[in-house]
Specification:
Blueprint (H helix, E strand, L loop, with lengths): L6 E2 L2 E3 L8 E6 L2 E6 L4 E2 L12 E10 L29 E14 H12 L21 E13 L2 H18 L10 H25 L8 H31 L9 H44 L3
Helix pairs in contact: 2-3, 2-4, 3-4, 4-5
């Protein structure tokens, strides 16, 4: 009985406890063979939209002799098999679809694709090159891929990570509503919220994937730090403006020139009195708008 040797191309390891049930079925003139295998498989993943990301888990299989197997024909797929009953999903992912994609190309073409993207071709003077650019080869490699589409269950991360970070940023906006001359209160609130955000980050770091590029969640935490920290220099600025306003003193004499100078000083005092208010409300609006734009830009795109 001929059993085809199908290679698992992107398998990482085969655990010692793997199950290998198999069965050979004969029905009339047809013979079928199935094999169950538990393995660890490597596939690239993109966490840019974490925790609202979706992934395609790819299982790659191939056969290197097209004389026996011309192509793999996609058959029945299912998101669940042999497990009955409903319950909560505790893996953190939900399987949305399973599909089979087949292809056929020469072994030389496949090698050329990999080398062109991630390496360089053999030198023209190489007497025995592994692969040359635009080289011709007749040996076909018949492959198929099982693509498992999964979507992350995001509610846990929104309730436990994103919501606390947003609340801390919103509380930091209270800094701009505190009177300008209460510098100690404003700085104390900003420092307290900064430390709270730092403590929250320790918890967040345990849940965030260690990726080569920052995810949307990483960037949200960075923006939160900037908004919370911005309240400290802004508080010092409006405090200094408020103190300069108090240093303007009206002249004591009652002559005509002094009366005119008194009116000018009162006019300047009125303008300077509104300066801290304008700075605070401008800062409040800019920080709130920055947070809203960041949320839409980071999590509102695929």
């Amino acid at each position: 009985l001929w059993l085809p040797t199908v290679r698992m191309i992107n398998v990482y390891s085969l655990p010692d406890t793997r199950l290998q049930p198999y069965e050979i079925s004969v029905e009339g003139d047809s013979v079928s063979w199935w094999l169950g295998l538990n393995s660890v498989v490597f596939t690239p993943m993109n966490f840019r939209s974490f925790p609202f990301d979706s992934q395609d888990l790819v299982l790659q299989f191939g056969y290197s002799d097209a004389a026996y197997i011309k192509e793999f024909v996609p058959s029945t797929t299912s998101k669940r098999f042999l497990i009955r009953g409903d319950g909560n999903i505790v893996s953190g992912w939900d399987v949305t679809d399973v599909k089979v994609v087949n292809s056929s190309q020469t072994q030389q073409q496949e090698l050329s694709d990999w080398v062109e993207q991630y390496g360089k071709f053999s030198d023209e003077d190489d007497p025995s090159p592994v692969v040359r650019r635009n080289a011709n080869a007749t040996k076909e490699l018949v492959t198929f891929e099982v693509v498992i589409q999964i979507k992350r269950l995001w509610k846990h991360y929104v309730l436990n990570l994103i919501t606390p970070a947003i609340f801390i940023v919103l509380l930091s906006l209270i800094t701009f509503l505190i009177p300008a001359d209460s510098l100690d209160v404003r700085i104390g609130l900003s420092v307290t919220l900064f430390l709270s955000l730092t403590a929250l980050q320790f918890i967040i770091n345990e849940s965030l994937p260690k990726t080569s590029n920052p995810s949307a969640m990483h960037e949200l935490i960075l923006i939160s730090y900037i908004i919370v920290t911005f309240g400290m220099p802004e508080s010092i600025l409006v405090y200094l403006v408020k103190q300069q306003q108090k240093e303007i003193v009206e002249p004591a004499s009652a002559d005509l020139a002094s009366n005119f100078a008194s009116k000018v000083i009162r006019l300047l005092r009125g303008k300077r009195h509104g300066a801290p208010f304008i700075i605070d409300w401008t800062s409040f609006s800019v920080c709130l708008l920055t947070l809203i734009i960041a949320m839409v830009f980071l999590f509102g795109k695929d």
